Amino acid sequence: MFMRTDLTESRPMIEVTGAGKMYGSHPALHEVDWQVTEGEWWGVVGPNGSGKSTLLQLLAATEHPSAGSIQIDGRDISSYTRKDLSRMIAVLQQDGLPAISYPVRDVVEMGRYPYQNWLGKETSDGAAVVDRVLEELGLSDMAERPLDALSGGQRQRVALAKVMAQEPRLLLLDEPTTFLDIKYQLQFMELLSAWRQKNHITIVAVLHDLNLAAQFCDHILALREGTCVGNGTPHSLMTEENIREIFRVSPAMVSHPDNGLPQLLLRREKK
Ligand SMILES: Nc1ncnc2c1ncn2[C@@H]1O[C@H](COP(=O)(O)OP(=O)(O)OP(=O)(O)O)[C@@H](O)[C@H]1O
Protein backbone atom coordinates (compact mmCIF):
# COMPACT_ATOMS: atom_id res chain seq x y z
CA MET A 1 0.00 0.00 0.00
CA PHE A 2 2.75 2.47 0.96
CA MET A 3 5.64 3.66 -1.17
CA ARG A 4 9.16 3.09 0.01
CA THR A 5 11.64 5.92 0.02
CA ASP A 6 14.37 5.90 -2.59
CA LEU A 7 17.65 5.56 -0.75
CA THR A 8 20.78 7.16 -2.08
CA GLU A 9 24.11 5.42 -2.55
CA SER A 10 25.63 6.84 0.65
CA ARG A 11 26.16 4.65 3.69
CA PRO A 12 23.26 4.43 6.13
CA MET A 13 23.64 6.36 9.36
CA ILE A 14 21.04 4.08 10.92
CA GLU A 15 20.23 0.54 9.84
CA VAL A 16 17.46 -1.23 11.71
CA THR A 17 17.05 -4.86 10.69
CA GLY A 18 14.21 -7.06 11.93
CA ALA A 19 14.19 -5.16 15.21
CA GLY A 20 11.74 -6.17 17.89
CA LYS A 21 11.24 -5.15 21.49
CA MET A 22 9.32 -7.06 24.14
CA TYR A 23 8.39 -5.57 27.50
CA GLY A 24 7.72 -8.78 29.41
CA SER A 25 5.22 -10.56 27.19
CA HIS A 26 4.11 -7.34 25.50
CA PRO A 27 5.52 -6.77 21.99
CA ALA A 28 6.18 -3.01 21.73
CA LEU A 29 7.97 -3.34 18.38
CA HIS A 30 7.92 -6.12 15.84
CA GLU A 31 10.24 -6.79 12.89
CA VAL A 32 11.05 -3.21 12.03
CA ASP A 33 13.33 -2.72 9.01
CA TRP A 34 14.45 0.82 8.34
CA GLN A 35 17.40 2.71 6.91
CA VAL A 36 18.32 6.33 7.43
CA THR A 37 20.99 7.97 5.29
CA GLU A 38 23.28 10.59 6.82
CA GLY A 39 21.82 14.09 6.57
CA GLU A 40 18.16 13.02 6.31
CA TRP A 41 15.39 14.31 8.55
CA TRP A 42 12.84 11.65 9.46
CA GLY A 43 9.57 12.11 11.30
CA VAL A 44 8.30 9.07 13.21
CA VAL A 45 4.51 9.12 13.52
CA GLY A 46 1.80 6.80 14.76
CA PRO A 47 -0.99 6.53 17.32
CA ASN A 48 -0.36 6.49 21.08
CA GLY A 49 1.35 3.29 22.14
CA SER A 50 2.49 2.36 18.62
CA GLY A 51 6.15 2.05 19.64
CA LYS A 52 7.63 5.42 18.59
CA SER A 53 9.43 6.18 21.87
CA THR A 54 10.56 2.57 22.11
CA LEU A 55 12.18 2.85 18.68
CA LEU A 56 13.92 6.05 19.75
CA GLN A 57 15.15 4.37 22.92
CA LEU A 58 16.65 1.55 20.87
CA LEU A 59 18.46 4.14 18.72
CA ALA A 60 19.74 5.91 21.84
CA ALA A 61 20.79 2.53 23.30
CA THR A 62 18.84 3.21 26.48
CA GLU A 63 16.89 0.04 25.64
CA HIS A 64 18.17 -3.02 23.79
CA PRO A 65 16.31 -4.87 21.04
CA SER A 66 14.84 -8.26 21.94
CA ALA A 67 15.29 -9.33 18.31
CA GLY A 68 17.13 -8.10 15.23
CA SER A 69 19.89 -5.51 15.13
CA ILE A 70 20.53 -1.77 15.18
CA GLN A 71 23.59 -0.43 13.40
CA ILE A 72 24.78 3.14 13.74
CA ASP A 73 27.29 4.36 11.18
CA GLY A 74 28.07 0.82 10.07
CA ARG A 75 28.61 -0.73 13.52
CA ASP A 76 26.32 -2.57 15.87
CA ILE A 77 25.11 -0.10 18.47
CA SER A 78 26.13 -2.41 21.31
CA SER A 79 29.79 -2.15 20.23
CA TYR A 80 30.01 1.57 21.13
CA THR A 81 30.93 2.82 24.59
CA ARG A 82 28.48 5.21 26.26
CA LYS A 83 30.97 8.08 25.72
CA ASP A 84 31.37 7.20 22.00
CA LEU A 85 27.59 7.29 21.66
CA SER A 86 27.24 10.60 23.47
CA ARG A 87 29.75 12.18 21.06
CA MET A 88 27.67 10.94 18.16
CA ILE A 89 24.04 10.96 19.35
CA ALA A 90 22.08 13.58 21.29
CA VAL A 91 18.57 13.09 22.62
CA LEU A 92 15.99 15.77 23.33
CA GLN A 93 12.74 14.97 25.12
CA GLN A 94 9.43 16.85 25.02
CA ASP A 95 10.17 18.66 28.27
CA GLY A 96 13.90 18.94 27.70
CA LEU A 97 14.97 20.61 30.96
CA PRO A 98 13.51 20.95 34.44
CA ALA A 99 13.01 24.44 35.92
CA ILE A 100 16.14 24.47 38.07
CA SER A 101 18.11 27.51 39.18
CA TYR A 102 21.23 26.83 37.04
CA PRO A 103 22.23 29.66 34.70
CA VAL A 104 21.57 29.10 31.00
CA ARG A 105 25.29 29.11 30.11
CA ASP A 106 26.11 26.37 32.67
CA VAL A 107 23.32 24.19 31.32
CA VAL A 108 24.48 24.61 27.72
CA GLU A 109 28.06 23.82 28.83
CA MET A 110 26.81 20.47 30.14
CA GLY A 111 26.38 19.52 26.48
CA ARG A 112 30.20 19.49 26.24
CA TYR A 113 30.49 16.67 28.77
CA PRO A 114 31.28 13.96 26.15
CA TYR A 115 34.39 15.94 25.13
CA GLN A 116 35.85 16.26 28.62
CA ASN A 117 38.60 14.03 29.96
CA TRP A 118 38.52 12.44 33.41
CA LEU A 119 39.71 15.74 34.93
CA GLY A 120 36.73 17.54 33.46
CA LYS A 121 38.97 19.39 31.00
CA GLU A 122 38.27 19.73 27.33
CA THR A 123 40.88 19.42 24.64
CA SER A 124 38.88 21.35 22.01
CA ASP A 125 37.65 24.90 22.54
CA GLY A 126 34.33 24.15 24.19
CA ALA A 127 33.76 27.72 25.41
CA ALA A 128 33.80 28.97 21.82
CA VAL A 129 31.26 26.32 20.81
CA VAL A 130 28.98 27.33 23.69
CA ASP A 131 29.27 31.04 22.78
CA ARG A 132 28.46 30.31 19.15
CA VAL A 133 25.44 28.16 20.00
CA LEU A 134 24.09 30.78 22.46
CA GLU A 135 24.46 33.39 19.72
CA GLU A 136 22.83 31.24 17.02
CA LEU A 137 19.83 30.55 19.21
CA GLY A 138 19.43 34.14 20.37
CA LEU A 139 20.23 33.17 23.97
CA SER A 140 23.33 35.32 24.56
CA ASP A 141 21.33 37.99 26.41
CA MET A 142 19.89 35.47 28.84
CA ALA A 143 23.09 33.44 29.34
CA GLU A 144 23.36 34.38 33.01
CA ARG A 145 19.66 33.99 33.83
CA PRO A 146 18.61 30.93 35.81
CA LEU A 147 16.49 28.36 33.99
CA ASP A 148 13.64 28.69 36.49
CA ALA A 149 13.23 32.34 35.47
CA LEU A 150 12.49 31.36 31.85
CA SER A 151 9.23 30.37 30.17
CA GLY A 152 8.71 26.77 29.04
CA GLY A 153 9.34 27.80 25.44
CA GLN A 154 12.60 29.58 26.29
CA ARG A 155 13.68 26.59 28.35
CA GLN A 156 13.13 24.26 25.40
CA ARG A 157 15.36 26.58 23.34
CA VAL A 158 18.05 26.17 26.01
CA ALA A 159 17.55 22.39 25.82
CA LEU A 160 18.15 22.64 22.07
CA ALA A 161 21.27 24.75 22.72
CA LYS A 162 22.58 22.06 25.08
CA VAL A 163 22.23 19.31 22.46
CA MET A 164 23.71 21.62 19.79
CA ALA A 165 26.74 22.19 22.05
CA GLN A 166 27.09 18.42 22.10
CA GLU A 167 27.78 18.62 18.32
CA PRO A 168 26.12 15.28 17.56
CA ARG A 169 25.91 13.69 14.12
CA LEU A 170 22.52 12.19 14.97
CA LEU A 171 19.80 14.00 16.88
CA LEU A 172 16.88 12.07 18.35
CA LEU A 173 13.85 14.11 19.37
CA ASP A 174 10.83 12.76 21.25
CA GLU A 175 7.85 15.05 20.70
CA PRO A 176 10.01 18.15 21.20
CA THR A 177 7.27 20.69 20.47
CA THR A 178 4.48 19.24 22.63
CA PHE A 179 4.50 22.01 25.23
CA LEU A 180 5.23 24.88 22.86
CA ASP A 181 2.73 27.39 21.46
CA ILE A 182 2.49 27.63 17.68
CA LYS A 183 5.02 30.45 17.40
CA TYR A 184 7.61 28.57 19.48
CA GLN A 185 6.81 25.32 17.63
CA LEU A 186 7.64 26.97 14.33
CA GLN A 187 10.68 28.73 15.72
CA PHE A 188 11.97 25.47 17.19
CA MET A 189 11.54 23.59 13.90
CA GLU A 190 13.15 26.42 11.90
CA LEU A 191 16.16 26.46 14.26
CA LEU A 192 16.52 22.71 13.80
CA SER A 193 16.20 23.08 10.06
CA ALA A 194 18.90 25.77 9.89
CA TRP A 195 21.23 23.79 12.15
CA ARG A 196 20.76 20.64 10.11
CA GLN A 197 21.52 22.46 6.87
CA LYS A 198 24.63 24.04 8.27
CA ASN A 199 26.05 20.92 9.93
CA HIS A 200 24.57 18.14 7.78
CA ILE A 201 23.30 16.27 10.84
CA THR A 202 20.76 13.46 10.74
CA ILE A 203 17.49 14.02 12.61
CA VAL A 204 14.90 11.52 13.77
CA ALA A 205 11.92 13.20 15.44
CA VAL A 206 8.85 11.59 16.95
CA LEU A 207 6.08 14.03 16.12
CA HIS A 208 2.38 13.96 16.86
CA ASP A 209 1.73 16.98 14.66
CA LEU A 210 1.52 15.50 11.17
CA ASN A 211 1.31 18.93 9.56
CA LEU A 212 4.62 19.98 11.11
CA ALA A 213 6.13 16.62 10.12
CA ALA A 214 5.04 17.13 6.50
CA GLN A 215 6.48 20.64 6.38
CA PHE A 216 9.90 19.89 7.86
CA CYS A 217 10.78 16.20 7.44
CA ASP A 218 12.03 14.72 4.15
CA HIS A 219 10.77 11.26 5.11
CA ILE A 220 8.17 9.81 7.44
CA LEU A 221 8.12 6.43 9.15
CA ALA A 222 4.68 5.36 10.35
CA LEU A 223 4.16 2.83 13.13
CA ARG A 224 0.99 1.13 14.23
CA GLU A 225 0.80 -1.47 17.03
CA GLY A 226 4.57 -1.87 17.00
CA THR A 227 4.80 -2.56 13.27
CA CYS A 228 6.10 -0.32 10.53
CA VAL A 229 3.10 0.39 8.28
CA GLY A 230 4.51 3.12 6.09
CA ASN A 231 7.76 4.67 5.01
CA GLY A 232 8.01 7.45 2.46
CA THR A 233 8.04 11.13 1.63
CA PRO A 234 5.31 13.37 3.09
CA HIS A 235 3.69 13.41 -0.36
CA SER A 236 3.58 9.62 -0.66
CA LEU A 237 2.70 8.88 2.94
CA MET A 238 0.28 11.61 3.91
CA THR A 239 -2.71 10.55 1.88
CA GLU A 240 -6.26 10.36 3.17
CA GLU A 241 -6.25 6.57 2.82
CA ASN A 242 -2.98 6.12 4.75
CA ILE A 243 -4.03 8.46 7.57
CA ARG A 244 -7.28 6.51 7.88
CA GLU A 245 -5.39 3.20 8.05
CA ILE A 246 -2.80 4.41 10.54
CA PHE A 247 -4.86 6.62 12.86
CA ARG A 248 -8.42 5.42 12.22
CA VAL A 249 -9.68 8.92 11.50
CA SER A 250 -10.97 10.32 8.20
CA PRO A 251 -9.29 13.66 7.58
CA ALA A 252 -9.65 16.13 4.75
CA MET A 253 -6.31 16.59 2.99
CA VAL A 254 -5.30 19.91 1.47
CA SER A 255 -2.14 21.20 -0.21
CA HIS A 256 -0.23 23.88 1.60
CA PRO A 257 -0.60 27.12 -0.43
CA ASP A 258 3.12 27.98 -0.02
CA ASN A 259 4.74 24.70 -1.03
CA GLY A 260 2.07 22.17 -2.05
CA LEU A 261 2.95 19.86 0.86
CA PRO A 262 0.10 17.72 2.20
CA GLN A 263 -1.69 19.13 5.24
CA LEU A 264 -4.43 17.56 7.24
CA LEU A 265 -7.71 19.03 8.46
CA LEU A 266 -9.60 17.13 11.12
CA ARG A 267 -13.22 16.31 10.40
CA ARG A 268 -15.78 15.92 13.16
CA GLU A 269 -17.37 12.50 13.40
CA LYS A 270 -20.74 12.30 11.72
CA LYS A 271 -23.55 11.62 14.19
N1 LIG B 1 9.09 0.39 30.11
C1 LIG B 1 8.01 -0.22 29.64
N2 LIG B 1 7.52 -1.32 30.24
C2 LIG B 1 6.43 -1.97 29.77
N3 LIG B 1 5.74 -1.58 28.68
C3 LIG B 1 6.16 -0.48 28.04
C4 LIG B 1 7.31 0.26 28.47
N4 LIG B 1 7.49 1.30 27.64
C5 LIG B 1 6.51 1.23 26.72
N5 LIG B 1 5.71 0.15 26.96
C6 LIG B 1 4.56 -0.26 26.15
O1 LIG B 1 5.02 -0.44 24.82
C7 LIG B 1 4.08 0.08 23.89
C8 LIG B 1 4.74 1.16 23.04
O2 LIG B 1 5.02 2.26 23.87
P1 LIG B 1 5.76 3.56 23.35
O3 LIG B 1 5.94 4.48 24.51
O4 LIG B 1 6.95 3.17 22.58
O5 LIG B 1 4.66 4.13 22.33
P2 LIG B 1 4.53 5.58 21.68
O6 LIG B 1 4.13 5.34 20.27
O7 LIG B 1 5.75 6.37 21.92
O8 LIG B 1 3.31 6.16 22.51
P3 LIG B 1 2.87 7.69 22.83
O9 LIG B 1 2.53 8.32 21.51
O10 LIG B 1 1.65 7.52 23.68
O11 LIG B 1 4.01 8.37 23.54
C9 LIG B 1 2.90 0.59 24.70
O12 LIG B 1 1.90 -0.44 24.73
C10 LIG B 1 3.47 0.80 26.09
O13 LIG B 1 2.51 0.61 27.09
TrEMBL record:
<dbReference type="GO" id="GO:0005524">
    <property type="term" value="F:ATP binding"/>
</dbReference>
<dbReference type="GO" id="GO:0016887">
    <property type="term" value="F:ATP hydrolysis activity"/>
</dbReference>
<dbReference type="InterPro" id="IPR003593">
    <property type="entry name" value="AAA+_ATPase"/>
</dbReference>
<dbReference type="Pfam" id="PF00005">
    <property type="entry name" value="ABC_tran"/>
</dbReference>
<keyword id="KW-0547">Nucleotide-binding</keyword>
<keyword id="KW-0813">Transport</keyword>
<dbReference type="InterPro" id="IPR003439">
    <property type="entry name" value="ABC_transporter-like_ATP-bd"/>
</dbReference>
<dbReference type="InterPro" id="IPR017871">
    <property type="entry name" value="ABC_transporter-like_CS"/>
</dbReference>
<keyword id="KW-1278">Translocase</keyword>
<dbReference type="InterPro" id="IPR027417">
    <property type="entry name" value="P-loop_NTPase"/>
</dbReference>
<protein>
    <submittedName>
        <fullName>ABC transporter ATP-binding protein</fullName>
    </submittedName>
</protein>
<feature type="domain" description="ABC transporter">
    <location>
        <begin position="14"/>
        <end position="250"/>
    </location>
</feature>
<keyword id="KW-0067">ATP-binding</keyword>
